[in-house]
Design brief:
The chain is mostly helical and 232 residues long. The protein is built from 9 helices and no strands. The chain crosses the membrane at residues 12-31, 51-71, 83-102, 131-151, 158-175, 181-200, 212-230.
Amino acid sequence: MSTFPGPRLGGAALVLGPVLVLAGVLLRLPYPFFFPHQLAAVVLHPAQMTAAATCFLAGQVVLLCAVSTVVHQIAVPKPRWAAWSGALVLIGLVERVFHAGFDQAATDLARHRGADYATAFVAEAYGDLHLFSFLSFTIMFGWPLLGFAAYRAGVLGPVRAVALAAMTVLPLGVLKGTTMWSIAAAAGLCVAFVPSGIRLLKQAARPDRRTFGLACLGTVAVGALGYLSSLG
């Protein structure tokens, strides 16, 4: 019985998600780490910073499918480990998407009202409490637990399990730049997930003509709906 997201979507997500995260991390490497510098870079280098933010955010969304795939694999021999580690990592990914929404609001302020205005706003609002203020531990502890669970279940070997656990050092919060820890974490994610994704894609049955045709129609429909969504 096939389970979501399946070998094709899951395999593609395991390859694409880490690559997008690494691309986002590398694109913002030239600019200092803290938010005043990040906001200034948004004004001075809007195309590069937009690309960095878009890649990083898209990577978090795609990782939802990638992690679900790994959790399904863990659940076969170790269902409890799968449930706990999967829940923590998925909540952490949703929190990063939430942070990205705050980033977008702040960068829009920087573009329309200037970097100084946006910096003052972020400095005042940064400490405000919200739901995810109490769930940041999921980002820090979810990835090591998932790496350990994947190792216990035989899904990942020791080296790739440690590489996955290294995601715990990826800085969390809003408007964070890139450090060497960021690069190590994103590279570790690639080491852990990309080979599994390639293997899944190779093992997946080749689609028949009907499936291929439906996939093409679905791609066109998604593109059209995306364009219509941008109008509202």
